[in-house]
Specification:
two-stranded antiparallel ribbon, alpha+beta, binds (3R)-3-hydroxy-3-methyl-5-(phosphonooxy)pentanoic acid, 8 helices, single chain, 12-stranded mixed beta sheet
Length: 327
């Protein structure tokens, strides 16, 4: 009898407070600078990995996934198969708790859940830093979703990437914050993050300045976080996000993820900020994410609901790291 090698894991997505935009190595997803994120309960992927069967296959929300998604998943699976000296094909079934096609990054939660499920299914007991380095090869930002709470991704300096993984700065219990995702567009993005980063690095004259400011922002954001200094953390997070977008816009031809609706939400956030503890951040897409304290949440929610361009509001809070739920 052959043992059924299967396991299920859950992972939450994460949103960067200090952004990662630039690779020192494309194949290994090694970043030019460190980054800092919050893992978010409410944006969750559940993935079952089984070794066995006839060929490698990936199902996303019950549908056979397109080739590029399978190729990305196989980057992680290959590393796991090599470590465990397994040769069997893999079957991956993955589903998201949040609406797919909402322009929300599912690769961080998806690749983190895949890594943890695959390692367990293959019989490997790996420390979280190693799981993080493996997840990184599938998708850079996924290395941060291995941990819960507030997480820093170390850029490392080695060419083989063994010193570039994420570690927890403080747990999800450390600070009760709320994140409201104002969904204004649900189309798939025009340019993926890998292509966007490489193009920005190659053509934006602002890029070296962005990386230099990221290194400073990371120190300041970590210090503000550890003191629970909301205003200071918010200032750093806001400028890190806007400088990343300025860098992309300065690429030639430009990369513009903003839509007119993005600016509507930004201007609402800037006016709310005058009275309330609130800040915004935007990733490689048009949707704005608003951070606030729990008491401020109803005000932000009510204000967002007045904007006709906001199609949906998803709420999240600091959440747990990736974990096996069934093996
Ligand atoms: O690792 P990727 O390919 O998901 O890129 C993430 C890029 C941003 O979301 C824009 C920034 C970040 O640090 O998450």
């Amino acid at each position: 009898m052959t043992l059924k090698k299967t396991a299920t894991a859950r992972a939450n997505s994460n949103i960067a407070l200090v952004k990662y935009w630039g690779k020192r190595d494309r194949a290994l997803n090694l970043p030019e600078a460190g980054s800092l994120s919050v893992t978010l309960e409410g944006l969750t992927t559940t993935t079952t990995v089984s070794f066995g069967g006839e060929r490698d296959a990936l199902y996303l929300n019950g549908q056979l996934a397109p080739e590029p998604a399978l190729r990305k998943a196989l980057r992680v699976i290959e590393l796991i198969r090599n470590r465990a000296q397994l040769r069997q094909p893999v079957r991956i079934e993955s589903s998201n708790s949040f609406p797919t096609g909402a322009g929300l990054a599912s690769s961080a939660s998806g690749i983190a859940a895949l890594t943890v499920a695959a390692a367990r299914a293959a019989g490997l007991a790996l420390p979280k830093t190693e799981l993080s380095a493996i997840a990184r090869v599938g998708s850079g930002s996924a290395c941060r979703s291995i941990w819960g709470g507030f997480v820093e991704w170390l850029p490392g300096s080695r060419a083989d990437g063994t010193d570039s993984f994420a570690q927890q700065v403080c747990s999800e219990e450390f600070w009760d914050l709320r994140v409201l995702v104002a969904v204004v567009a649900d189309k798939a993005k025009a340019m993926g993050s890998t292509e966007g980063m490489l193009h920005t690095q190659a053509t934006s004259p602002f890029h070296p300045a962005f990386i230099a400011s990221t290194v400073r922002d990371l120190d300041e954001a970590r210090a503000a976080l550890l003191k629970r200094d909301f205003r200071r953390l918010g200032r750093v997070a806001r400028r890190s996000s806007l400088r990343m977008h300025a860098d992309m816009m300065a690429a030639d031809p430009p990369i513009i993820y903003f839509q007119p609706e993005t600016l509507e939400v930004i201007s609402l956030a800037l006016s709310l900020e005058r009275e309330h503890e609130l800040f915004f951040t935007i990733d490689a897409g048009p949707n704005v994410k608003l951070f606030c304290t729990p008491t401020v949440e109803p005000h932000v929610m009510a204000a967002l609901e007045t904007l006709p361009c906001v199609q949906r509001i998803i709420t999240a809070r600091p959440g747990r790291g990736a974990e096996v739920v069934e093996a």
